[in-house]
Amino acid sequence: MKPAVLLTHRLYQSTVVAIEARFDAIRLYEGPDPDAVLVRVGERVRAIAGGHVSADLMAKLPNLEIIANFGVGYDSVDTTAAKARGIVVTNTPDVLNDAVAELAIGMMLALGRKIPQADRFVREGQWAHDAYPLTGELNGKTVGILGLGRIGKEIAQRAQAMKMRVVYHGRQKQDDQPYIYYNNLSDMARDADWLMVIVPGGAATQGIVTRDVLDALGPEGAIVNLGRGSLVDEPAMLDLLETGKLGGAALDVFLDEPRVDPRFFALDNVVLSPHQGSATHQTRHKMGQTLVRNLEAYFAGHPPPNRVI
Ligand code: NAP
Ligand code: 8YV
């Protein structure tokens, strides 16, 4: 009998096809009553494919053995509850580095060169009457990367190609990296023109970008966040953006997704994006392949290649 795998949300189509070919796939997101689905199939589920796995959901699945998270960040999985039950957790690292790094640079350009506003300027026929206001440039500026990990390193390389100076902050200095290390985040923000946030979410990093850090970045500085909304004191960021004490923000992630604080919508110094760092066909396909490889390895009795818990 094929192991039953519960899909928590709609995954990329080739991923669903691959899961269906190998496992007994159960879609939690289809139909009006997910709780009724869990009552009906809960006992037989041995794996989850997706994310957003609470202790409550795990409690309804007494035979759950593995959670294969669709994404590198697994902060939406209650890892404490998983550990307590000996449930394995896997993720999809590396295959999304390029897509996320590309969007990071794209969002810097969009904010710095005011590309969304320029597009509106042309569409609305204003070009016939006015010259478009001058903007900033990336070259010659310093980007401080909070989180020089797998994705952070790809962003660093691309920032260098844009002729930017790269510095970074993390818990540890990385001796094999050519960039200047700051052991204090506020100090880095003070010295940087751009703060690039690409650390994992979760309890350890909750609110790591404080009001003080944003103050240090200052009126000429801008934040770019592709990590998680939980990393930044969002109300403080809004206060500072509204009063011009923070220059700008390019945000792919928010505190309460998919709800976005409407205060952002009135601001001209922000670029907003619907958590789409990895949302390309080629990357979502590869993320799915990675997820399925982990499930296959586990059920074949081998160590899953991307086990995190
Ligand atoms: P990674 O390779 O694990 O890198 C994480 C980096 O963060 C490391 O350099 C680490 O350095 C640093 N870090 C971790 N905890 C820290 C702390 N408490 N204080 C300061 N620095 C800390 O992770 P990754 O694969 O690059 O992914 C990073 C995150 O990007 C994911 O977890 C996810 O939240 C986000 N992401 C977003 C999207 C999107 O669509 N927007 C897509 C993919 C990923 P040290 O160990 O030296 O501290
Ligand atoms: C999402 C991400 O997981 O990998 C991550 O950590 O944030 C993204 O790739 C993706 O949107 C799937 O829900």
Task: Label this structure with key terms.
single chain; 309 residues; alpha/beta; Rossmann fold; 2 domains; seven-stranded parallel sheet; five-stranded parallel sheet; 11 helices; binds NADP nicotinamide-adenine-dinucleotide phosphate; binds 2-keto-D-gluconic acid
Brief synopsis:
The chain has 309 residues and is an alpha/beta fold.
**Count of discrete structural domains:** 2
Q: Kindly provide the name of the CATH class of the largest domain.
A: Alpha Beta
In order across it, which strands form the biggest sheet?
8-7-6-9-10-11-12
Question: What molecules are bound to this protein?
Answer: NADP nicotinamide-adenine-dinucleotide phosphate, 2-keto-D-gluconic acid
Separation, N- and C-terminal Cα atoms: 26 Å
Mean pLDDT: 98
What's the main sheet like? 7 strands, parallel
Helix segment count?
11
Q: Strand percentage, roughly? A: 15-25%
Give the topology string: H per helix, E per strand: EHEHEHEHEHHEHEEHEHEHEEH
The named CATH superfamily of the largest domain: NAD(P)-binding Rossmann-like Domain
Instruction: Report Rg.
Output: 21 Å
Question: Which secondary-structure class do the elements indicate?
Answer: alpha/beta
Q: Give a count of the beta strands, DSSP E runs of length 2 or more.
A: 12
For this structure, the CATH topology of the largest domain is Rossmann fold
